[in-house]
Design a protein that fits this description.
The chain is an alpha+beta fold. It has four domains: 3-95, Rossmann fold (3-Layer(aba) Sandwich), CATH 3.40.50.20; 125-191, 2-Layer Sandwich (Dna Ligase, domain 1); 197-324, ATP-grasp fold, B domain (D-amino Acid Aminotransferase, Chain A, domain 1, 2-Layer Sandwich); 333-407, Phosphoribosylglycinamide synthetase, C-terminal domain (Glycinamide Ribonucleotide Synthetase, Chain A, domain 4, Alpha-Beta Complex), CATH 3.90.600.10. Helix content is 28%, strand content 25%. The protein is built from twelve helices and 22 strands. The protein has helices at 10-19, 51-60, 71-75, 78-84, 98-105, 107-116, 132-141, 165-177, 245-265, 299-302, 310-319, 396-407; strands at residues 3-7, 28-32, 42-43, 65-68, 92-94, 124-127, 146-150, 159-162, 188-191, 197-205, 210-212, 217-218, 221-223, 227-230, 235-238, 272-281, 284-291, 333-340, 364-367, 370-372, 379-381, 385-393. The strands form six sheets. Strands 3-2-1-4-5 form a five-stranded parallel sheet. The longest helix has 21 residues, at 245-265. The structure holds adenosine monophosphate and glycine (GLY). Residues 122, 147, 156, 159, 161, 191, 193-194, 198, 220, 277, 288-289 line the site of adenosine monophosphate. Residues 156, 218, 233, 291, 295-296, 298 line the site of glycine.
């Protein structure tokens, strides 16, 4: 089987790493990929949001399965496009149709969906230019902190948590009237602040049944102790100590099942990953957000814990036979530490030579922002998040200790990583 993975981050390298281990995989392509995926398959430098271009590649390379890593092509309707093109209809696509991807593509859509299906989430109201004044009044009825969310996709930056009422009002105006997050903030969801600890839960679904993947915890802030600016994610661990079987049962019964049933009821043909961004308030789980894809850097600790053949699992997703698929997991802990560029998530320099990545043992390197120098082929930094180092262990601490030992062996100018991943877990 020829497989094409769309995307270029650590998540896509983790997918490529796993899919390349399957006996069913013949040729593996990654578009556009990075210096790490190039070791496992063929990188194709195209714009993955140009569907006509993608169609050419898929036909030319005789692709049988396409795995969509990031959300943007899904929200743009890539699955629908493939379904409607006669030449592409038989290709197995891992990633939902646009209507399903709207669970991530519109916060208001997701909120309404949760309301219809009684899925626990923060109380909310949404506002745009037509009712901005009501937005100010609504904020006055709430207590700080105020949570303002751009309705549309904003590359993980569209959520503001503000502690001052006047600031919340002025930011609301900036989002709606001055397009602070572009089109994405023409509509803003204001919601109740939930105080608790976050957890990322993933399922693979064929639109009828589902399998729950290992859970993970992501560390989004740049600084130690969860301080400073938000990033794309600085590391992850899996499993998560407070995700006991009792708590996971609650999540399955109150959140996962109603979500899948809701998709069935609303005739949404969802075949792919659902990422439940959850928060535990007291002993209860609430949904903070849905994503229509795997998390990054969660994928870098979750995918290494899947023992089963992922091509088999994806085939079951595409054929709608997931109900008979038995998925197996590695019981060990996994930790992923993200090495980033100095200055990230603000401005940073690129093209720094990376040394120490050859012959590293007892860890898996998942490249994120790397590329090969066009003249020398050497591996260089090309993004904010550079490389994730994943290690296994018999405890969370053991997996972290090993990952940190290896992280220290990789060098480039400006290298930074958090040294306290997992600090809030036992
Ligand atoms: P999102 O982009 O929806 O994941 O939001 C980004 C981050 O904002 C989340 O990971 C949470 O840390 C925080 N957040 C979002 N919504 C809420 C909420 N209702 N209460 C508390 N924190 C929130
Ligand atoms: N780690 C959070 C995300 O992938 O959105």
């Amino acid at each position: 089987m020829n497989i094409l993975i769309l995307g270029s981050g650590g998540r896509e390298h983790a997918l490529a790493w796993k899919l390349s281990q399957s006996e069913k995989t013949d040729d593996l392509f990654i578009a556009p990929g990075n210096a790490g995926t190039r070791e496992l398959g063929t990188n194709i430098p195209i714009d993955i949001n140009d569907f006509n271009e993608l169609k050419k590649v898929v036909v030319e390379k005789d692709i049988d399965m396409m795995v969509v890593g990031p959300e943007v092509p899904l929200v743009n309707g890539i699955s629908d496009y493939f379904k409607n093109e006669p030449a592409l209809q038989n290709i197995a696509i891992i990633g939902p149709v646009k209507q399903g991807a709207m669970l991530e593509g519109s916060k208001e859509f997701a909120k309404k969906f949760m309301k219809r299906h009684n899925i626990p989430t923060a109380a909310y109201k949404s506002f745009n230019t037509s009712n901005l004044e009501e937005g100010y009044k609504f904020l006055e009825t709430l207590e700080a902190p105020y949570v303002l969310k751009a309705d549309g996709l904003a590359a993980g930056k569209g959520v503001l948590i503000l502690y001052d009422l006047e600031l919340a009002k002025s930011e609301l105006a900036k989002m709606i009237e001055e397009a602070k997050f572009g089109e994405a903030s023409a509509k803003v969801v204001i919601e109740e602040f939930l105080d608790g600890i976050e957890l990322s839960v993933f399922v693979l679904t064929d639109g009828k049944s589902y399998v729950i993947l290992p859970e993970a915890k992501d560390y989004k802030r740049i600084g130690e102790g969860d301080s400073g600016l938000n990033t794309g994610g600085m590391g992850s661990v899996s499993p998560v100590s407070f995700a006991t079987s009792e708590f996971m049962d609650k999540i399955e019964n109150q959140i996962i099942k109603p979500t899948i049933d809701g998709l069935i009821e609303e005739n949404i043909d969802y075949r792919g990953f659902i990422f439940f961004g959850l928060i535990k308030v007291g002993d209860e789980p609430y949904v903070i957000e849905y994503n229509c894809r795997m998390g990054d850097p969660e994928a870098e600790s979750v995918i290494p814990r899947i023992k089963s053949d992922l091509v088999d699992a994806f085939e079951a997703v595409a054929n709608k036979s997931l109900d008979t698929f038995k998925i197996e997991f590695d019981e060990r802990h996994a930790a992923a530490i993200m090495l980033v560029s100095g200055g990230y998530p603000e401005s940073y320099e690129k093209s720094k030579h990376i040394s120490g990545i050859e012959n590293l043992k007892d860890c898996i390197l998942f490249h994120a922002g790397t590329s090969n120098d066009i003249n020398t082929g050497e591996v260089k930094t090309s993004g904010g998040r550079v490389i994730a180092i994943c290690s296994y262990g018999n405890s969370m601490q053991e997996s972290l200790d090993m990952a940190y030992e290896k992280a220290n062996l990789i060098e480039y100018e400006g290298r930074y990583f958090r040294t306290d991943i997992g600090f809030d877990l036992k």
